[in-house]
């Protein structure tokens, strides 16, 4: 099992750092899956996470100048690591004006993801900072726990308003309630609601648009049969939603959410080369 | 004692107080003939800082109350760091508004008076209660330290910034080959798989002076060091680091004609014998010097070792107990017992007190001896 990668371009480094920072805000520990073309940051839905799950995918080619990996065996050329993304974020934070950053899998006192940063110095030789981030190597028999989640059979799919706006709304609502109701219809309308014994607050968004979903067999999804005015709603943990909104350091090119009535909300944030999916279960 | 500080020097004093506040909860004020000395020591007495401001630093400096030069009238005292710090809390506003600072202490008065003369004729007077006390003096001698490094504070600030704020101690490693290494210190109790280890390598050329007689590593607290660095950075004076064998104090010094600063930090004493395997970190000087040499195979380490019996591995397995070297406190240190006026509390870590030379806990066990290879073994199980 081998892995090494190198980033030289400062733009790529900053971009990668932002992605990692986002992940670090969303998950305390996560699984890093490495394949020849892609990196995945995965949070499997477990009770311990409050039922939240995450799937973040990036193509290595857009970030790394060099990327070499060798999985357990030729036919399963993948590596699964258990990682604290906060450590990786911290390590990258010190690499802001780096000449080059190398990330490699090493076996020091324990398996580590070693981030080696080459920094400019006063002398002819560079300063080298290495961060050994302990990781757990996930054995192959557990890999099945980290399958890509399928898009749920949702009732309504809708584009999200500007995340910053949504964040400032949710931030204020958080002071009033622990739960937020997201509801939306096929007419491009979405409401964010809190309801407590003392107060009810609703923020209305309209003309958001509904993304067209096409099934594999070419037919439109069943949502087409829905009454465009009827709302699908889910009540979710407001802190989880805020975590997602607050963690976004780059404005995604596309942001949408799928609501499965009273079961879950599935967020999809798309950047050019990064996609982030986030699942928040509904509370009854 | 009466002194007046004007202009930019007020901010220097303020920064010094901030730096001292990282060390101890009480500030020792001692007016001496050769300047005003401000000192602090931490409760475990493993850190001591002393700022000596020369008479030239002040617009006016009278150490001995009214009758200048009369030693009998000199008062030494200590004040609560918190209350003194409150006067100099906001450095930017200090710089912007304060034109003159007057500090006076007389044996008859019951208060230490700090007066800030600000813009627009505003005068802020702080009367701080104090306690008379003996002189506080740590015993150290930079001449006796075998090794000395000197660098501009910027270099050390840039080095320390890479370490997480939560990190308590850092290990400084030097070798005659001209390498200077800073590495996170991992406590023995910490499970190695829990903590990120950061290591920074600097070359000798970046230092103004590099006198190292033999390969050495010392471990000291970061908090106080960071405090001194932020002061040093504002003065841009070169910072000297004097250190010796592990367990002997390390002295960080800044000096110019107006100011002398010493920070003395206890260093962790190392158990007898090879220290390499003890703190869970891999063998020294094995980090990424090969950064530029891109020999792939050398650093793509295969992790699929199903057996733990290769030689490198077994060497690293720590033995369950270590004999600790019991250095008896040397005479110089016992002498200083009387000098410390603060009741000492036991050192939290295995740092030897600078004053008492108290020793570390004798027994320590390593429970994390098992390397985390098992998971890897399971990997190959899956192959079958």
TrEMBL record, chain A:
<dbReference type="GO" id="GO:0044778">
    <property type="term" value="P:meiotic DNA integrity checkpoint signaling"/>
</dbReference>
<dbReference type="GO" id="GO:0009314">
    <property type="term" value="P:response to radiation"/>
</dbReference>
<dbReference type="GO" id="GO:0030896">
    <property type="term" value="C:checkpoint clamp complex"/>
</dbReference>
<keyword id="KW-0963">Cytoplasm</keyword>
<keyword id="KW-0227">DNA damage</keyword>
<dbReference type="GO" id="GO:0000723">
    <property type="term" value="P:telomere maintenance"/>
</dbReference>
<dbReference type="GO" id="GO:0035861">
    <property type="term" value="C:site of double-strand break"/>
</dbReference>
<dbReference type="GO" id="GO:0031573">
    <property type="term" value="P:mitotic intra-S DNA damage checkpoint signaling"/>
</dbReference>
<dbReference type="InterPro" id="IPR016580">
    <property type="entry name" value="HUS1"/>
</dbReference>
<comment type="similarity">
    <text>Belongs to the HUS1 family.</text>
</comment>
<dbReference type="InterPro" id="IPR046938">
    <property type="entry name" value="DNA_clamp_sf"/>
</dbReference>
<protein>
    <recommendedName>
        <fullName>Checkpoint protein</fullName>
    </recommendedName>
</protein>
<dbReference type="InterPro" id="IPR007150">
    <property type="entry name" value="HUS1/Mec3"/>
</dbReference>
<comment type="subunit">
    <text>Component of the toroidal 9-1-1 (RAD9-RAD1-HUS1) complex, composed of RAD9A, RAD1 and HUS1. The 9-1-1 complex associates with LIG1, POLB, FEN1, RAD17, HDAC1, RPA1 and RPA2. The 9-1-1 complex associates with the RAD17-RFC complex. HUS1 interacts with POLB, HDAC1, FEN1, PCNA and RAD9B. HUS1 does not interact with RAD17. Interacts with DNAJC7.</text>
</comment>
<dbReference type="GO" id="GO:0005730">
    <property type="term" value="C:nucleolus"/>
</dbReference>
<dbReference type="GO" id="GO:0000724">
    <property type="term" value="P:double-strand break repair via homologous recombination"/>
</dbReference>
<dbReference type="Pfam" id="PF04005">
    <property type="entry name" value="Hus1"/>
</dbReference>
<comment type="function">
    <text>Component of the 9-1-1 cell-cycle checkpoint response complex that plays a major role in DNA repair. The 9-1-1 complex is recruited to DNA lesion upon damage by the RAD17-replication factor C (RFC) clamp loader complex. Acts then as a sliding clamp platform on DNA for several proteins involved in long-patch base excision repair (LP-BER).</text>
</comment>
<keyword id="KW-0539">Nucleus</keyword>
<dbReference type="GO" id="GO:0033314">
    <property type="term" value="P:mitotic DNA replication checkpoint signaling"/>
</dbReference>
<dbReference type="GO" id="GO:0006289">
    <property type="term" value="P:nucleotide-excision repair"/>
</dbReference>
<dbReference type="GO" id="GO:0005829">
    <property type="term" value="C:cytosol"/>
</dbReference>
Automatic annotation (TrEMBL), chain B:
<dbReference type="GO" id="GO:0030896">
    <property type="term" value="C:checkpoint clamp complex"/>
</dbReference>
<dbReference type="InterPro" id="IPR026584">
    <property type="entry name" value="Rad9"/>
</dbReference>
<dbReference type="GO" id="GO:0017124">
    <property type="term" value="F:SH3 domain binding"/>
</dbReference>
<dbReference type="GO" id="GO:0019901">
    <property type="term" value="F:protein kinase binding"/>
</dbReference>
<dbReference type="GO" id="GO:0008630">
    <property type="term" value="P:intrinsic apoptotic signaling pathway in response to DNA damage"/>
</dbReference>
<dbReference type="GO" id="GO:0042826">
    <property type="term" value="F:histone deacetylase binding"/>
</dbReference>
<dbReference type="Pfam" id="PF04139">
    <property type="entry name" value="Rad9"/>
</dbReference>
<keyword id="KW-0269">Exonuclease</keyword>
<protein>
    <recommendedName>
        <fullName>Cell cycle checkpoint control protein</fullName>
    </recommendedName>
</protein>
<dbReference type="GO" id="GO:0031573">
    <property type="term" value="P:mitotic intra-S DNA damage checkpoint signaling"/>
</dbReference>
<feature type="region of interest" description="Disordered">
    <location>
        <begin position="363"/>
        <end position="384"/>
    </location>
</feature>
<feature type="region of interest" description="Disordered">
    <location>
        <begin position="310"/>
        <end position="349"/>
    </location>
</feature>
<dbReference type="GO" id="GO:0006281">
    <property type="term" value="P:DNA repair"/>
</dbReference>
<dbReference type="GO" id="GO:0008311">
    <property type="term" value="F:double-stranded DNA 3'-5' DNA exonuclease activity"/>
</dbReference>
<dbReference type="GO" id="GO:0005737">
    <property type="term" value="C:cytoplasm"/>
</dbReference>
<dbReference type="InterPro" id="IPR007268">
    <property type="entry name" value="Rad9/Ddc1"/>
</dbReference>
<keyword id="KW-0539">Nucleus</keyword>
<dbReference type="InterPro" id="IPR046938">
    <property type="entry name" value="DNA_clamp_sf"/>
</dbReference>
<comment type="similarity">
    <text>Belongs to the rad9 family.</text>
</comment>
<keyword id="KW-0540">Nuclease</keyword>
<keyword id="KW-0378">Hydrolase</keyword>
<comment type="function">
    <text>Component of the 9-1-1 cell-cycle checkpoint response complex that plays a major role in DNA repair. The 9-1-1 complex is recruited to DNA lesion upon damage by the RAD17-replication factor C (RFC) clamp loader complex. Acts then as a sliding clamp platform on DNA for several proteins involved in long-patch base excision repair (LP-BER).</text>
</comment>
């Amino acid at each position: 099992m081998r892995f090494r990668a190198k980033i030289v371009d400062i733009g790529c480094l900053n971009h990668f750092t932002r992605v990692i920072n986002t992940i670090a805000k969303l998950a305390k520990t996560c699984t890093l899956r490495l394949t020849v073309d892609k990196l995945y940051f995965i949070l499997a839905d477990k009770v311990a996470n409050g039922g939240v799950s995450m799937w973040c995918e990036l193509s290595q080619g857009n970030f790394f100048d060099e990327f070499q990996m060798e999985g357990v065996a030729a036919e399963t050329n993948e590596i699964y690591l258990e990682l604290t993304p906060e450590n990786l974020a911290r390590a990258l934070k010190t690499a802001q004006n780096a000449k080059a950053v190398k990330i490699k899998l090493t076996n020091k006192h324990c398996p580590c993801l070693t981030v080696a940063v080459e920094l400019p110095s006063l002398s002819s030789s560079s300063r080298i900072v290495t961060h050994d981030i302990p990781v757990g190597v996930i054995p192959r028999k557990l890999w099945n726990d980290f399958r890509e989640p399928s898009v749920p059979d949702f009732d309504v799919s809708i584009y999200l308003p500007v995340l910053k706006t949504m964040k400032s709304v949710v931030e204020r609502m958080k002071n009033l309630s622990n739960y937020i109701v997201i509801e939306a219809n096929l007419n491009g309308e979405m409401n964010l609601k809190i309801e407590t014994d003392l107060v009810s607050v609703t923020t209305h968004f309209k003309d958001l648009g509904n993304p067209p979903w096409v099934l594999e067999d070419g037919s439109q999804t069943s949502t087409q049969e829905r009454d465009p005015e009827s709302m699908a709603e889910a009540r979710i943990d407001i802190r989880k939603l805020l975590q997602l909104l607050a963690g976004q350091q780059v404005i995604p090119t596309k942001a949408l959410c799928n609501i499965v009535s009273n079961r879950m909300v599935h967020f999809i944030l798309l950047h050019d080369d990064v996609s982030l999916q986030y699942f928040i279960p509904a509370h009854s | 004692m009466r002194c007046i500080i004007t202009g930019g020097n007020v901010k220097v004093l303020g920064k010094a107080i901030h730096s001292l506040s990282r060390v101890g909860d009480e500030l020792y004020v001692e007016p001496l003939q050769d300047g005003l000395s401000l000192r602090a020591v931490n409760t475990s007495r493993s850190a001591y800082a002393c700022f000596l401001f020369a008479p030239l630093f002040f617009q006016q400096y009278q150490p001995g109350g009214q009758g200048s030069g009369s030693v009998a009238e000199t008062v030494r005292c200590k004040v609560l760091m918190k209350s003194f710090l409150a006067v100099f809390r906001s450095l930017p506003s200090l710089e912007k508004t304060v034109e003159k600072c007057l500090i006076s202490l007389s044996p008859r008065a019951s208060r230490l008076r700090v007066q800030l003369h600000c813009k627009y004729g505003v005068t802020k007077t702080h009367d701080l209660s104090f306690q008379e006390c003996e002189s506080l003096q740590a015993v150290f001698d930079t001449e006796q330290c075998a090794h000395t490094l000197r660098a501009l504070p910027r270099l050390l600030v840039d080095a320390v910034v890479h370490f997480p704020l939560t990190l308590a101690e850092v290990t400084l490693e030097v070798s005659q080959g001209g390498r200077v290494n800073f590495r996170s210190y991992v406590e023995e109790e910490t499970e190695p798989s829990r903590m990120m280890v950061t290591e920074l390598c600097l070359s000798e050329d970046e230092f103004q002076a590099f006198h190292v007689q033999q390969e050495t590593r010392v471990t000291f607290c970061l908090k106080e060091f960071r405090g001194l660095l932020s002061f040093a950075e504002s003065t841009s004076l070169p910072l000297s680091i004097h250190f010796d064998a592990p367990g002997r104090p390390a002295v960080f010094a800044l000096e110019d004609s107006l100011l002398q600063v010493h920070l003395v930090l206890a260093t962790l004493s190392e158990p007898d014998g090879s220290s390499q395997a003890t703190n869970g970190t891999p063998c020294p000087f094995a980090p990424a010097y090969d950064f530029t040499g891109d020999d792939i195979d050398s650093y793509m380490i295969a992790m699929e070792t199903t057996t733990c019996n290769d030689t490198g591995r077994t060497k690293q397995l720590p033995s369950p107990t270590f004999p600790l070297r019991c250095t008896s406190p040397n005479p110089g240190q016992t002498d200083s017992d009387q000098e410390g006026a603060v009741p000492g509390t036991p050192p939290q870590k295995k740092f030897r007190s600078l004053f008492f030379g108290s020793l570390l806990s004798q027994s320590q066990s390593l429970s994390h001896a098992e390397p985390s290879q098992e998971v890897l073994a399971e990997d190959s199980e899956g192959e079958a």
